[in-house]
């Protein structure tokens, strides 16, 4: 008992002022929601850009008058320029990968639920946590600035000119989210978007790296240091393992991108030659200012970060899926230990496979073979996870709620998208597929849509905890079915296009007559994409409506077992109202033989333990309270 | 009471996936270890976050310098335009200063446990040595500039400026932390938590400083002896 009163005395008071409570908040829950709002805003920009790309690809000559008004140089008369399209590709990729797939799963849900699930009052370093969000937000503002600096003629001629020159005919840099040198490294001579837009792009990514590093530092320290009594590592929910592994990946991969970004910026602004070889010809002039740099070096640095990054995007989705499948299957996760080791194996192998992005960049066949074998070996832990998810569902009496549907959708998309990874991971098969639509089809399914499905599942699942109200089930199911069918309609045909040989990153195919037969498929994909994007309005509406009008949810509406369900919805400022929970068992004890209910909370003591602790005088906590 | 629940019961569910097993594959720890998941007291644990956080931060800093070093090695081999710099002599002074500063800081850290304020003199000495190191690095830049060697002159000079600047920026952060430590009010001896936190903070800053010391030695060897 004395332990509890001690804790109660130290209870942190919630800040009173609006600014400290909702804007510059130190509370991990508020910061988590801020991250989620950032991702919800960023994904709108990213989705709009993907629709514009589809419009260009399917109806290349059509005039869209609103674009002509907004971007008189990028889309003169409403018809998009090829450069305009290429900058859309770049900005769509950058915004989606960094500001959606990295922020929502880790910064958003991880921030909100990792401390609660391990029974901590907050993160280890709340101030760094706040900084990590605000730094990331600055990064987002800088990447948005690239749109205006490159897209608006007035701004391009004033601010853009000062930041390295801007053309006014694109909506950002051109170079894809990978920003390959030397195109990205020589500045304005390389063409539109390579001046101010590219500078802002690099600066934004560098800022984002710093924000992510602060976040990762916090996650790792919190998980190692702040677990509550009894929360042994192997009693943590799989979500925590996923967030932890993700944080380790971010911690070790973002510094490499930061280093590469600094080198790239120096090449552009100071005139060094890290990545720019001598003798490049642009138009009719030879570039004499640089010599001897290695463009492949940038690819190595970028992909050493870039490959772990795809796992940074998807691992939290895997964690959420395991968690949700178990809850609604009313069964423990099949093979908990194997799941933990599989997460680690995926994270570890993820550091040794970056070369598979560079098979045709030129590398020794021996290293290509090594990268290939390592890449294919990721299939093993991935299969372990898939079979364990199926094992969890096997013979279960499933509750088909919206979060469960999205979690099952995650498994489906992960398998469908992952299987083509086996094609791209082999050197001989990758050669014809490289830079065709097969590649975007593969990674959109597996890292894009699957991760997002994990986050949809997480949103519907944890919304009652975060706001004390359910999201609307009917709208949720509508959202699920249209999105689920929609994404398959978008990305399965793209595999076919890739196998026919349709190159990616081309603004239009009107000059390539041999691809004419594919045009109906291109139009079909665009229509599916537009319907799927419009369906997201239902999700946004549901989200906002449910905050105010949703059905009230209690403390543990899903009858789940982990610590976040032992506190009120929404949780108080210090998560557990001053009394930290004590953990006695693993995270997924559903349908325990002989138990009274079909779920046993982590805080329920073992019957034998009650006797033991009473016998020896207890550990300072009154176990009967839980 | 105890035996009622621990006795083995026939599993009501069978087949693939099985039912939950007590203490089985779910990794449920043995009840004996409950409440002792962490091997140290809450007090130490609360303060330990600074030490853990510092190790984690160092891992990330190490990765950045590893990336830059591999770029250095690859770039040196990728073309024949590499012209090795003549070492500015004053770099030797920098190296000496930073090695000594690590020593003085270690003394300060150990003194912290003893009487109040005994460590401050040593902390201040470390700050002075740290500033000396940075000034000495700046002078090295000046020497090179006077010889007409700039950032973009050749790849080796690019890397020299870049690596010294990156290291210097990190060291500047260390100096700020040292300044904070030496200006901080002494914590009351009877507040155990505050004492533990002060010690952990000092340990973390010392660790950082030693790391910067070793990092410089490594960069020194890489820049002037590996080529």
Shape of chain A: globular
| Quaternary status | heterodimer
CATH architecture name of the largest domain in chain A: Up-down Bundle
Rg of chain A, rounded, reads 25 Å
Rg measurement of chain B, Å: 26 Å
CATH H-tier superfamily of the largest domain in chain A: Cytochrome c oxidase-like, subunit I domain
Q: Briefly note the structural class of the backbone of chain A.
A: mainly alpha
Across the major sheet of chain A, the strand order is 1-2
Number of helices of chain B: 6
Whole-number average pLDDT of chain B?
82
Helix content, binned percent of chain A: 55-70%
**Which CATH class of chain B?**
Mainly Alpha
Task: Give unreliable regions of chain B as ranges.
Answer: 1-40
CATH topology of the largest domain in chain A: Cytochrome C Oxidase, Chain A
- Please report the total strand number of chain A as a whole number: 2
Write the layout of secondary structure elements.
The complex is a heterodimer of chains A (626) and B (227).
Chain A: H1 2-9, H2 18-23, H3 28-58, H4 65-70, H5 82-101, H6 103-117, H7 126-151, H8 153-162, H9 196-225, H10 238-269, E1 281-282, E2 285-286, H11 295-329, H12 336-349, H13 365-377, H14 379-393, H15 402-419, H16 421-424, H17 427-433, H18 438-467, H19 473-500, H20 519-549, H21 607-616
Antiparallel strand pairs in A: 1-2
Helix pairs in contact in A: 3-5, 3-6, 3-7, 3-20, 5-6, 6-9, 6-10, 7-8, 7-9, 9-10, 10-11, 10-12, 11-15, 11-18, 12-14, 14-15, 15-18, 15-19, 18-19, 19-20
Chain B: H1 2-6, H2 42-78, H3 90-113, H4 120-146, H5 155-183, H6 192-226
Helix pairs in contact in B: 2-5, 2-6, 3-4, 3-6, 4-5, 5-6
